[in-house]
Design a protein that fits this description.
The complex is a heterotrimer.
Chain A: H1 18-48, H2 55-62, H3 65-103, H4 112-127, H5 130-140, H6 153-179, H7 182-190, H8 195-210, H9 212-225, H10 237-248, H11 252-283
Chain B: H1 2-21, E1 38-42, H2 62-73, E2 81-85, H3 88-92, E3 101-102, H4 110-113, E4 117-125, E5 127-132, H5 133-137, H6 144-148, E6 152-155, H7 160-168, E7 175-177, H8 180-188, E8 194-198, H9 199-209, E9 213-219, E10 228-234, H10 240-254, H11 256-264
Helix pairs in contact in B: 2-10, 2-11
Chain C: E1 4-13, E2 16-26, E3 31-36, H1 42-49, E4 57-62, E5 65-66, H2 74-78, E6 81-84, H3 96-106, H4 112-125, H5 141-153, E7 159-163, H6 171-186, E8 190-194, H7 198-204, E9 207-212, E10 215-220, H8 222-227, H9 232-241
Parallel strand pairs in C: 3-8, 3-9, 6-7, 7-8
Antiparallel strand pairs in C: 1-2, 1-4, 4-5, 9-10
Chain lengths: ~280, ~280, ~240
């Protein structure tokens, strides 16, 4: 039996305390109840839903295994179009959003028109449904008579997405800038830093870091809204699912498309939540 | 015994004319959504020349006229026909339907047959290439090779899509749209060169909707690949189908169907056949 | 010529007259301590001296030049007068070294390689050489405040202003900051401090000014002011804090 006077590294673990025993028992009990209740709910769904009168028809129409198998590869391929649109829109949105946010923040009287423009811009593009903007810009501007390839729906549809989302990003960044305490600006000013340098080196880096989770949510929404370009021609996953639906008179392709979207958006949302959680922990 | 005999004879006499006169009328009894009423669905809006002025109740337009003719064959006259509007999706989704049959240029395909029921065809359609005069002037010709080089658009919900993929095989991926209006908008904006429609719709669009619209050529109705036959769309297993089929057969045999076609769908002369 | 001269300085915030005719002269190398109750205008006065706040009336002369003239470029003044705040105000997204080197680089145009030596020497002088790469949230309050002082000193100011720089610190950390001030004092820096540290003021200040209601009610060397205050309000204040 080890000598109790020896150093901590050689000591036996202490016997569980009364409280530890009690808490362990509580944990086991609540774990069992949780498992039981979950199993019950799952069993209820699995047993009761198929008993609904229309279930067979719904299953054939929405959860048709053979249609799913046939259409899934085509849907995956069409999803690449969505990914491509997202990849070239996202950086443009980040940049334009930053520019608009800065426009709204300028103080010099000579630059007042910029401030006005920024305010007008965010009001308009946050106030319109995205699909409407896609239609108006995607069809309207090429309709003015642009030559190919400048009238491509990819260009103008993407521009519509960029304009709308930049407005939201601008507002998020602006709220980030506002959230930086005035004392930071005082400190920067008292060191002799110019307004521009203060914004660039002191305020913006902190502001953008602070609102990163909010911005991530916007970009997750963008991942879904790229499907709106389907209205003006490009065959991305939503449109492709629609084509299959029409050819096969079956809605299962939409379920397939939904699964593909979730495979991307759920991890992205979880990551954004993790970032937000980590940021809150650091601030407290 | 005499009384029973004469009573039965009376009954037989009374019902016989009805049985003879409304030979088809009996067929549909009890098989419609609402007794004594035939509920017909079409698109929203319903386009020329299938329905005129978006008013199918008037009976004007090819499909409106066909619907009333079939209804009459089954014993539903005038007021007994009620119209509703649906989208394509509403027509194929599972669950109770709000129509007895649906007609809006639905093409009969084996894949669709697995999920819904189609009647016998009431029209076989040529498919025509709608384009603009500018594209023709730039050298497009009614040959498949020439068509391959054009930028194509189509209504995503139609059989024009597989037809493009199988027969034309364009060099560039076609752009697809939600309805005819968007396809023509894209054509006006110069984003697409050509689109595939059934011939009557193509004639209408080129004459009325598209500035400088023109028909480049047609794939005739009696082509062997991907023939486009329009049928009435019904819920799977609808017992009304046999009655409808009988009505269509009667109309075809009596020549009435051809008359309706001649009245509402102009002969498209001068549209070259695509080689 | 006196280094800094304030004449009849007034400052209003909305309806509130916070500074009501301040008269103050600071000579080169002098250490002036401002004492007074909260709200007496100490912070405002300091922020007016380096033009963070514009004054409404009166004049401020630095080396004989009127820097309070409306339209005078404040940036020129701010490189000559440094200020350290009660809540340190370090930039949290930069390391201590980056905090210190930002302004010399952007405002004075110093290159990183020519700055590295002097900056390291500064950190070393105040015992923070091995903290240069740390972020503010990894430093104690006393260390952060010392970095804030180094950050202001890196601009080679002629005058240093200190706005109650120990008030936000735990008592055991106050000493290390006061040591820094002693060093600066010994090197002959011109300093104006708003402070509650009466013992410190008594030990090191050349002049102590008592502010009350926006005016300097009494002004004397610490030996005189702390033991023989003339005004009644001064006596009342000192009896509460000493």
């Amino acid at each position: 039996m080890p000598n109790p006077d020896q150093g901590g590294a050689a000591a036996l673990p202490a016997a569980p305390t009364r409280r530890e025993i009690h808490e362990a028992r509580l944990r086991r009990r609540s774990g069992a109840i949780a498992a039981g209740s979950t199993l019950f709910v799952i069993a209820a769904i699995v047993v009761l839903v198929p008993m609904a009168p229309g279930w067979e028809a719904v299953r054939r129409s929405f959860f048709n295994a053979e249609v799913f198998r046939k259409t899934f590869p085509g849907l995956l391929e069409a999803f690449l179009v969505d990914v491509a649109i997202f990849l070239w829109c996202a950086p443009a949105i980040a940049l334009l959003g930053l520019v608009i946010a800065l426009c709204r923040d300028v103080r010099a009287p000579a630059l007042f028109p910029l401030r006005l423009f920024g305010a007008l811009y965010t009001d308009v593009f946050r106030g319109l449904p995205v699909v409407l903007v896609v239609y108006l810009i995607g069809f309207g501007i090429p309709g003015l008579g642009l030559p190919r390839p400048w009238n491509s729906p990819y260009i103008w549809g993407s521009l519509a997405l960029i304009l709308v989302y930049a407005a939201y990003v601008a507002e998020v960044i602006r709220s980030g800038i506002d959230s930086i305490h005035a004392s930071q600006r005082s400190a920067a000013a008292s060191l002799g830093l110019s307004e521009a340098d203060t914004m660039r080196y002191v305020v913006l880096p902190q502001a953008i870091r602070n609102v990163a989770p909010a911005n991530m949510n916007l970009f997750i929404a963008l991942q879904k809204d790229v499907a709106l370009l389907s209205f003006i021609g490009p065959v991305e996953i939503f449109r492709q699912a629609g084509v299959y639906k029409s050819l096969l008179a079956n809605f299962t392709p939409y379920v397939g498309a939904a699964l593909i979207f979730l495979a991307i958006t759920i991890p992205a949302t979880r990551y954004a939540d993790y970032l937000l959680h980590r940021q809150r922990r650091r601030q407290s | 015994m005499n009384k029973t005999l004469s009573a039965t004879a009376c009954l037989l006499l009374m019902t016989a004319p009805a049985a003879l006169a409304g030979a088809h009328g009996d067929c549909a009894a009890g098989k419609t959504l609402e007794d004594g009423v035939l509920t017909v669905a079409t698109g929203n809006p319903a386009y020329y020349p299938w329905v005129l002025d978006d008013a199918p109740e008037s009976g004007e337009g090819f499909e409106a006229a066909v619907a009333y003719a079939i209804a009459a064959e089954m014993g539903f006259e005038g007021e007994a026909v009620r119209w509703v509007r649906t989208s394509f999706d509403e027509a194929i989704q599972p669950g109770a339907k709000n129509f007895d049959f649906n007609l809006q240029q639905y093409s009969i395909t084996p894949e669709r047959e697995q999920m819904v029921d189609f009647s016998l065809p009431y029209y076989t359609s040529a498919m025509a290439v709608l384009t603009t005069q500018a594209v023709i002037d730039a050298g497009a010709e009614p040959t498949v090779e020439s068509l391959r080089g054009l930028v194509w658009g189509a209504d995503a919900n139609t059989t024009a899509v597989p037809m493009l993929a199988e027969i034309v095989q364009p060099e560039r991926d076609p752009l697809l749209y939600g309805d005819n209006a968007d396809v023509t908008a894209a054509m006006q904006a110069g984003q697409i060169d050509a689109a595939l429609f059934d011939l009557p719709t193509a004639l209408y669009l080129s004459a009325v909707v598209v500035d400088g619209g023109a028909l480049l050529g047609q794939f005739p109705a009696d082509r062997s690949e991907n023939p486009d036959q329009f049928g009435l769309l019904m819920e799977e297993g609808n017992p009304l189908r046999d009655c409808v089929d009988a009505a269509i057969t009667a109309l075809t045999d009596s020549g009435r169907l051809a008359e309706i076609e001649a009245e509402w769908l102009q002969q498209a002369t001068g549209v070259p056949v695509i080689e | 010529m006196a280094k800094l001269v304030l004449q009849d300085v007034r400052k209003r915030f909305g309806q509130n007259l916070v500074l009501d005719g301040i008269e103050l002269t600071v000579s080169e190398g002098e250490m002036v301590c401002l004492i007074g109750a909260s709200g007496s205008g100490k912070s405002t006065l300091l922020r007016c001296i380096n033009l963070l706040e514009p004054i409404d009336d009166g004049t401020i002369h630095l080396d004989g030049v009127d820097i309070s003239e409306p339209g005078y470029d404040p940036q020129a003044v701010r490189t000559r007068i440094g200020i350290v705040f009660q809540s340190f105000n370090l930039f949290p997204h930069m390391t201590a070294a980056q905090n210190v080197m930002l302004a010399p680089r952007r405002v004075l145009g110093r290159r990183p390689d020519e700055m590295a030596g002097p900056v390291e020497a500064l950190f070393d002088r105040f015992g923070l050489k091995n903290r240069m790469g740390h972020y503010p949230d990894q430093l104690s309050g006393g260390q952060q405040q010392r970095v804030a002082i180094i950050r202001a000193l890196a601009m080679s100011p002629e005058i240093m202003l200190f706005d109650e720089i120990t008030s936000a610190l735990d008592p055991e950390l106050v000493g290390e900051v006061l040591d820094v001030l002693r060093q600066l004092r010994a090197e002959g820096m011109t300093m104006v401090l708003a402070t509650h540290e009466m013992g410190f003021a008594r030990e090191l200040a050349d002049t102590v000014c008592f502010l009350d209601g926006g005016r300097i009610l009494e002004r004397a060397p610490p030996a005189v002011l702390f033991s023989q205050p003339r005004a009644e309000r001064t006596r009342a204040f000192l009896s509460r804090v000493l």
